[in-house]
From TrEMBL:
PANTHER family: AMMONIUM TRANSPORTER, RH50, ISOFORM D. One of its GO terms (biological process) is ammonium homeostasis. Its main location: membrane. This is Rh50 isoform b. Residues 50-402 form the Ammonium transporter AmtB-like domain. One of its GO terms (cellular component) is plasma membrane. The keyword Kinase does not apply. The lineage of its organism: Eukaryota, Metamonada, Anaeramoebidae, Anaeramoeba. It is a multi-pass membrane protein. It is found in: Membrane. GO terms for molecular function: ammonium channel activity. It comes from the Eukaryota. Belongs to the ammonium transporter (TC 2.A.49) family. Rh subfamily.
Amino acid sequence: MKNQKLLVIFMIVLEIIMISLISSWMRYTTDLEEDQDSASDLEKISSFGNINDLMVVVVLGFGIIMLSYRNYGLSTMGYILLIVSFCVPFSIILNVFWYQVSIRDVRVYRIDLSIFIESMFATLTVMICFRALLGKVTPFLLFLVSIFEIFFYSLNVYVSSFELEIFDLGKSMNVHLFAGCFSITVSLIYTMSNKAIYTAYKKQVSDHISETITLLGTFLLWIYLPGANGSLAQNTGFYRSIINSVMSLISSTVVTFLLSGFFNNGKFTIKDVRNGTIVGGIAIGSVAHLYLTPIVSMGIGGVASLISFFSMNMFCGWYEKRLNIKDTSEIFSLNIIPGFVSGLSSIIVSAIASKYDSKYSDQFFKYFPQGNDQWKFQAGGLFFTIGIAIFGGGFCGLCIKLFNFPAPKEPFNDEENWNESNSTLKERDDSDLELKRQNFNISARDNFNFKLKTPMQSEDDDEKISSDSD
């Protein structure tokens, strides 16, 4: 209850500050203030479609994919709405602040849809971090971490875009790589010495229904990631982003199913399919708007899914045991690996590109602001992103440790922060009781050399198992 009151007070203070800054700093653009048609109406409609795709990715895609825990669904979806509603205006304020730093002037900022797209990308970094802290922290700490993360994210974007002038329209480096490194670092520092959270995690279970629901999140990401990758692209760059992203997604999906079936005796695992099929859409993000051939797009998606598969099934288990940290949603494989692959792809593509290439002709410096030296700046942006993410995540984690913020009394449980009806609680208790009964039956049969009965077996199969054992 104390944490909830602290959260309410914290939100009220922040909202007052943000409202004051927005009212004094920002106005709509002239086109939005005037009720008249213009030649850019079609472009505005297209921009709305772009931000709509991105909102589906942020709110639904990454929201539903986190619903694997049976007792934490309300918190997962509910906090996403709350955090998105806070992070978008907060990110707009920071975007305006860094813009004014770049021009060395303070003036009223005219906002349009492009700044909302940038703010949704910033919010996506928080959603990725939310996946690493899922069930481990209180709502108050979620807000505190989101403030730190958006600040360091906006600083990284300022350095990358205004100082280094790198290209990353799909935000694979600035969002996925940054958020992955930041969230893993925060989670490591916060949970490393907290045995209760790690123990509570090991008691969590997911059933067939919750795992199936998470695949719906994968489907939404698969469909809407191409549009999100092209949300900041212009003219034909938008269409190239769509095509290249789809080709990369197709490749990563095929490679994931092949690897999962090959290494699991012809069967597929939900973890592989849920994550590996969409890494192609993330890995292509930084270069999706460029002139790529279909085989290059498919190659990027295939390589990303290949590395992601082996890291998820081999490396992740190793560092979880060594560091006593649970990568709750396979962030290392789903965000860090494809984000890094995307950064490497941008280095290679910019190193190969030439101003004498007929595809770019007189638009070469539009795509590569630093000319033939662009690959050096892409490399600098890649490693700066990793460095500032680890530094920011470490700073945030140490602040949480220093002030000794309390952990949730019941990790991975909705009941601590949500009022549920008696019927809902009864259904959950009955479901938990049935799950325990099934686990007991399976354990008993295993001890007495019985063949295990799966949930899909019929009663006739059960009788057959008993007769075989006799």
